UniProtKB/TrEMBL annotation:
Keyword Repressor: no
Name of this protein: Sulfotransferase
Residues annotated as transmembrane: 21-38
Annotated segments matching region Disordered: 84-116
Biological source species: Gadus morhua (Atlantic cod)
Chain's gene name: hs3st3b1a
Organism classification: Eukaryota, Metazoa, Chordata, Craniata, Vertebrata
Residues annotated as binding 3'-phosphoadenylyl sulfate: 134-138, 215, 223, 344-348
Sulfotransferase domain ranges (all copies): 127-364
Disulfide bonding pattern of the chain: 327-339
Principal location class: membrane
Enzyme Commission number(s) of this protein: 2.8.2.-
Any one GO cellular component localisation term in the record: Golgi membrane
Active site per the UniProt annotation: 134 (for sulfotransferase activity)
Length: 381
């Protein structure tokens, strides 16, 4: 048989380009498969899913004397909130959308590991921010949500004051899923001033840690009024609402303690209800003023109280001079800080000096009692 050069050339090793093409197709298919899993996990993470031993015992609080005590005691259960000045935007947590979006992005980074981790469960809150309205509760919650060991629901559940009849399982279902070692939290500022709430939280868990953000009650009342006026511009003046006989020639002005804007700031009276169920050491009182002037310092206190590592510090804050509030930022990089929304930091109306002074005189005995009960002088007088 003769040698054929043609046949010799037909028996060749397959071209390397074919192998490369096959590998390229396989890589594309693998990439698509990974991307589909990632998308599914990212979608799932956007779907809403629903102790401390204290050395101090309950303080015995003596009842104060004065012209306001009887009026206040009778009005605590029947607040004159005729203006319906509930901050619905804050209740939904809409003021920090950018920050929450950043938090979701951070959660997305861990989405793949969470997809394969079945240890995530929904738990009842181990700590609750219970007050006070217009004290800085939204800012504190968002500062805390930066911490990797905290998972918190953004909107205010209002379970213990408005939805208690729906049951604990309904409440639990509102909470985000957490891993072992993570702390579940929520915030509803109206809890602090609602009489029924302390016993209800105690029934859920007597070990629940409670945080109250407080600020100068006079400034708080004006802020409360400012918020209401932004929604209802035709409301009466602050003075006419704050005093029962504010008209000229009606005699000395008497503070109307039935108006919710005034009533909320009588912190000592509200605290008495909580101390019937929880020891003083189980409540942490955060200064709303220091949360603005020294956010990292107050956050250190809060993280210590919750038994957490001090992760949120001065690297996370940037003070916005225009708004007068600290903004959140990533500790690394040069990303734009995320600040409070437009419903925060409103300019307060000018209130006459004699009105402010009269309110300060009204609050002074209650402030002093509050300082004694908490062991901390907030310096409002």
């Amino acid at each position: 048989m003769e040698y054929s050069p043609i046949l010799h050339h037909l028996h060749v090793v397959p071209s390397s380009s074919n192998v490369k093409n096959k590998l390229f197709v396989m890589c594309i298919m693998l990439s698509l498969w990974v991307y589909m899993i990632y998308c599914c996990v990212g979608y799932c993470t956007t779907i809403p899913t629903p102790s401390l031993s204290a050395s101090t015992t309950r303080s015995e609080v003596s009842e104060g004397d004065g012209e306001f005590d009887n009026q206040l005691d009778s009005s605590l259960g029947a607040s004159r909130d005729l203006l319906n000045n509930e901050n619905e935007l804050d209740s939904r947590g809409d003021d920090w959308d950018e920050t929450r979006g950043e938090a979701k992005a951070s959660q997305g980074d861990n989405a793949m590991s969470g997809f394969f981790n079945e240890s995530e469960t929904k738990k009842l809150p181990g700590a609750i921010i219970i007050g006070v309205k217009k004290g800085g509760t939204r800012a504190l919650l968002e500062f805390l949500r930066v911490h990797p060991d905290i998972r918190a629901v953004g909107a205010e559940p209002h379970f213990f004051d408005r939805n208690y009849d729906k049951g604990l399982e309904w409440y639990r279902d509102l909470m985000p899923k957490t891993l072992e070692g993570q702390l579940t939290m929520e915030k509803t500022p109206s809890y602090f001033v609602t009489k029924e709430v302390p016993s209800r939280i105690y029934t859920m868990s007597k070990h629940t840690k409670l945080i109250v953000v407080v600020r100068d009650p006079v400034t708080r009342a004006i802020s409360d009024y400012t918020q209401t006026r932004s929604k209802k511009p035709d409301i009466p003046s602050f003075e006419s609402l704050a005093f029962r006989n504010a008209t000229a020639g009606a005699g000395p002005a008497v503070v109307d303690a039935t108006w919710s804007a005034v009533q909320i700031g009588v912190y000592a009276k509200h605290l008495e209800h909580w101390l019937r169920y929880f020891p003083a050491g189980q409540l942490l009182f955060v200064s709303g003023e220091r949360l603005i002037s020294d956010p990292s310092g107050e956050m250190a206190r809060v993280q210590d109280f919750l038994g957490l590592r001090r992760v949120v510090d001065d690297r996370h804050f940037h003070f916005n001079v225009a708004k007068g509030f600290p903004c959140l930022k990533r500790p690394e990089g040069n990303s734009k800080p995320h600040c409070l929304g437009k419903t925060k930091g409103r300019t307060h109306p000018n209130i006459a000096g004699h009105v402010v002074q009269r309110l300060r005189e009204f609050y002074r005995p209650y402030n002093n009692k509050f300082y004694q009960m908490t062991g901390h002088d907030f310096g409002w007088d």
